[in-house]
Amino acid sequence: MPSSADQPGVPPSPGFAELYTPKLVTVLKEGYGLNELRADILAGLTVAIVALPLSMAIAIASGTSPDRGLYTAIIGGFLVSLLGGSRFQIGGPAGAFIVLVAGTVAQHGIDGLILATFISGLLLAAAGFLRLGTYIKFIPYPVTVGFTAGIAVIIAVSQIKDLLGLPAGQGDTGSLIEKLSAAVTALPEVSPAALLIAALTIALILALKAFRPGWPGMLIAIAAASLLAFFAGLPVETIGTKFGGIARTLPLPALPDLSAPLFWAVLPNAFAFTLLGAIESLLSAVVADGMTGRRHRSNCELVAQGAANIGSALFGGMCVTGTIARTATNVRAGARGPVAGMCHALFLLAFMLIAAPLASYIPLAALAGVLVLVAWNMIEKHAIAILVRTSPGDTLVLSATFLFTVFRDLTEGIIIGFSIGTLIFLNRMAKSIRIEHHMPFVPEDKADWENGTRAPYDAKLASDPGLVVYRISGAFFFGSASTVAAVLDRIAERPQTLVLDFSDVPFLDSTAANTVESALRKARASKARIFITGTSEPIRKALNAHGIKEPEISFAETVEAALKASRGA
After folding, report:
1. Are residues 285 and 294 in contact, defined by beta-carbon separation less than 8 angstroms?
2. Contact 85, 297 (CB under 8 A)
3. Which class would CATH give 433-568?
4. What percent helix, strand, coil does the chain show, rounded to 5?
5. CA distance 302 to 137
6. Residues 278-304, buried b or exposed e (16+ Cβ, 10 A)?
7. N or C: which end of the chain has fewer CB atoms below 10 A?
8. Cα distance between the two ends of the chain
9. Residue 463 main-chain phi, psi, to 5 deg
10. Which terms are listed as keywords in the entry (predicted)?
11. Omega prior to 440 cis, within 30 of 0
12. How far is CA 189 from CA 50, 92, 127, 178, 228, in A?
């Protein structure tokens, strides 16, 4: 079988090196000087300032200690940039994972989370080497919008306890409905101090975004809230009071608990991490491509995400993925390449080494305020409005994904949304098939100068009742096979010459090929001469595989060529 390189007009398949060479190598080969390094250092510092409070907030919301968020951003972020297939991707803990990570911790503890992250890293790397990154693009857009909005709602609800300073156990466990119900019941116990801190944090972030968009709003708001809580002596829970502060150094790497019972217990969680991690990472890379005009290597990116998750697990971190907001910040800050992401990780390490004791004073209400804004920004309001206005089918996919994510499970939401989206797509494709029945054959009526090479009107052919021409247009697959079969059944008219034109058929599957074979069996029984025209190489191979081959059937390039052959018979 000839390779794509041997076929004219088909580009050769990319080799291993082309697919998996990290973008860092590409950037260095292009020429990397002091100007580029200076730009990447500044961009890395900018992203690190954004990532510092966010990483701790996501870790706390996920049911772990804040230092695990920093481990994830430092180790995972460095490896994503070092090995990744995107020039600008920033890796670290992501808000989208809060639901999955919190569920895993609740079920299997920290050891289970670390093992699930480790297994997910292996699965992501395997997906990259198996070149599955290409298929992530088949996740329908309404599905991604739906599950992102669902995750955002769950994140916001999960922050009610810290946002209002409610006692432990009030609004922080159970399903979404249970959390809301518990929070409403506990409203008389709201802490005015916590509510003040949360409101101040949110208001300051929004004000800085509106009037000083270049300033690190999250970090400034967290610092201001911490100072207010400390100097005013406000009775609010802080990182220090809940976790005893954060570590000042990275832990030594260690393998996770690889016991068989725990492995099998967390395997479903690892698959969920892998699915969401692949989707989030490649979506983030696509966003960076759109902002810069560059093009990422999807399979190389998956391998890097796999290595980053393995590395994060070895250092006690949690799931790593590409983060859209931090990646966009990196691009806007003037990054030139992956060195910016590596610098971001190094700056975070420096912050942890130097300023770890100060983190003890950060109020949990302030971090809750940050996450509420993160959740709000995660909801793609403009996209939802467009989908709802323009497409009932996409609205159904969006709604189903959102509702299953919120009230059932993220993985179920993605699977249900994808399944409904697939069915809607198949229905649309099935309706797009057209089959034209010409008997007698008359050329399409066009202006004289538009006829091109089409055969001129032939009075003999036009009055020949023994000639039948069928033109099929559109994707011919199992969903549309019954439509075509209903028309082809009319072959019982017993023509002397039958022509099937496939020139407008881009795709044909085995069901469609079997439908054609059944129809042609009738025609052969009536001694008709059969021509098939306009087939591409893949379609002809599919027909041949189902017994539709010469000499029983004649193949021709065009309908006109088939008609000439029939007249010469």
Report:
1. no
2. yes
3. alpha beta
4. 65, 5, 25
5. 13
6. bbbbbbbbbbbeeeeebebbbbbbbbb
7. N
8. 34
9. -110, 15
10. Membrane, Transmembrane, Transmembrane helix
11. yes
12. 33, 35, 49, 17, 22
Task: Please state the domain extents for the chain.
Answer: 35-379, 433-568
pLDDT value of residue 465:
63
What is d(CA 282, CA 431) in angstroms, rounded to the nearest whole number?
A: 32
Residue 197 is predicted with a pLDDT of 94
Q: What's the predicted TM-score (pTM) here?
A: 0.77
**In terms of Cα–Cα distance, which of 70, 92, 69 is closest to 79?**
92
Stated as kind and residue range, the H or E segment containing 533 is strand 529-533
Contact 109, 165 (CB under 8 A): no
Q: Which two tokens stand for residue 538?
A: 């893949």
The structure tokens listed for 260 are 């068989």
The confidence score (pLDDT) of residue 422 equals 87
State the pLDDT at residue 5: 46
The four Cα atoms 179, 184, 190, 192 give a dihedral, to 10 degrees, of: 110
Give the model's pLDDT for residue 503.
Answer: 86
Across the chain, which has 569 residues, the per-10-residue mean pLDDT values are 45 71 92 92 91 90 92 96 94 90 93 97 95 80 88 86 78 70 79 93 94 87 93 91 85 93 95 91 85 87 96 96 88 91 95 88 91 88 89 91 88 89 83 67 48 46 67 82 77 72 86 85 80 88 87 86 75
